[in-house]
Amino acid sequence: MKGYYKMPEATAEAIDKEGWLHTGDLGEVDENGYFKVTGRIKDMIIRGGENIYPRELEEFLYKNPEVMNVQVIGISDKKYGEQVLAAVQLKTGKTASAEDFIEFCKGKIARHKIPKYWEFVDSYPMTASGKIQKFKMREIFEKNIRLRLSFRS
Predict the structure, then answer these.
(1) How far is CA 41 from CA 54, 65, 140, in A?
(2) 66 and 2 in one domain?
(3) For tag attachment on the chain, is the N or C end more exposed, with fewer CB atoms within 10 Å?
(4) Beta partners for 69?
(5) What's the chain's average pLDDT?
(6) Which pTM does this prediction carry?
């Protein structure tokens, strides 16, 4: 890739001086030399200095038989920098609570990776091309959490 069409600033951000394209993807290489995308750098959650990869948590939570879809995002937090939030879309006819999911996680993933916030949703904000807009989710849920916390005070 030589650059973005008529977007020199975006090109300068994505392509370094040696000509390497920085996509923002995280990945791994298997024993056969194949690359697998495992997440996005901009989606990484930093909670109290610990790096938490949303895709890793999403893949774990998909193992729960109640889950149809799940998206994990970071929510701003004064003490830890970010907290983990899981927005869960349950399968039709299924019910579950945050406590059920916390129990599901205990002993199977590190404690600091267990989401502090659990939201149960019917859908996610999407682009016209069908991609989930995590930045919009973050805006919506941060606002909702601030409102809930202000009512408790």
Answers:
(1) 10, 29, 21
(2) no
(3) C
(4) 89
(5) 93
(6) 0.82
